[in-house]
Amino acid sequence: MIRIKEQRKNAFKNRKVFKFDELSQKRQKRQIEIRRQSREQLLTTRRSYQAVVFQHTSNISCNFDAKCLDEDTIATATISPIHQYGEISPIQQLEEIRSTNISPIPDLGEANARTSLFRNQLSELVEDINSNSVDRQLMALTKIKKIFSKESVPPIQQIIDCEVVPRLVQFLTSKNTELRHEAAWIITNIVTGKCDQVQVVINAGALPVFMDLLNGTDRKLQDHALWALGNIASNFRELVLSTGDFGNSCLRILNEVTEPCSVLRTMAWTLSSICRGKISEAEWPSITSTLPAISQLINYKDDEILNNICWALSFLADGSSEQIDAVIDLGVCPNLVNLMMHAHHDVQSAALRCVRHIVAGNDLQTQVILDCGVLTVLKTLLVSDQASIRREACFILSNITAGNIDQITHVIHVGLIPLVINLLTNSDFQTRKEACW
Q: DSSP of 195-239, one letter per residue?
């Protein structure tokens, strides 16, 4: 039977005027631009928050509207590891920012003064970095770290222009643990920059070094390595996957760490970053190496881990039939259906989106979700007090009813049709539109 996606595309009256592939590429490009804008806003907020914490002051007041960051952006945006001052994850920090009146925008005069001071100190810092004294090197890196933490727009390009990135990469293999940590922190923040700035770090040979850190025993360095690799993968996914054995490295960490912690939360985010975007046939074999780690992480009871892993699975399922089969073969469908009722809205939304992509597949793939009891869950979600949840439930149901006769009959017997009819008259326009399908 023709799937609902094809029906919607064919129903478009100007389908012969516009080329589907071209429109898809334009949408994807626009999404990337939006993610980059949201990423910059998120980075500004997080860095400024750390500056306030570092200074132990709260004399700047302004409301931050975090609603501009949706679940997809928070789950997948390129972000910095500034939370490494402690065990606070980026999502937890964002929640703290939402609950305070601390401004994400520092005083411009003060910021300009600090930037000017940094320029004056830069030559001295470069000299210290290139010296043979570990104490001088460490002092220079500490100063740079403070500047990165305080500035709304960190001086990434200025650091690159000083040609110290190769030296920073060398520090990653230093015998001095503190020097390795400071260098890893700075490099991981540099790769939150633009594509050409990330390329400088890659050219300095950082990728294999980060892979080595990932296979080490220092949890903080593993955390930095995961953040860096996740940020680099947003532009150079194939390069990251072809350097070392990322999937097995994740599995080894999972075998050593049994409780949710910063490393596992970062790993979940990195996996979602790797899975995001259209996956080519050449990339798919490398992507599959990450699937065992994904299947393990979905069993954790940590909201942040679940949110990112559900998005990773959603990105995978939003592809070819082979990709949907790969998600199903992981045995995660019962988990996904259960997470559709999760108390945390972000986790619930991500799980709904993933299930929606799976039931957009063929009848056999849809049946797997049906066998997990999804119709009983949908019966509850169709009367949710949240419009977005009702819309997703309708979308999932519309794909299921595009299946075979037995599947349609099952929907009728469960008693979902009266609930959908009720939405046609007692809901918002977008929900009514989905209910029509």
A: HHHHHHHHHTTHHHHHHHHHTSS-HHHHHHHHHHHHHHHHHHHHH
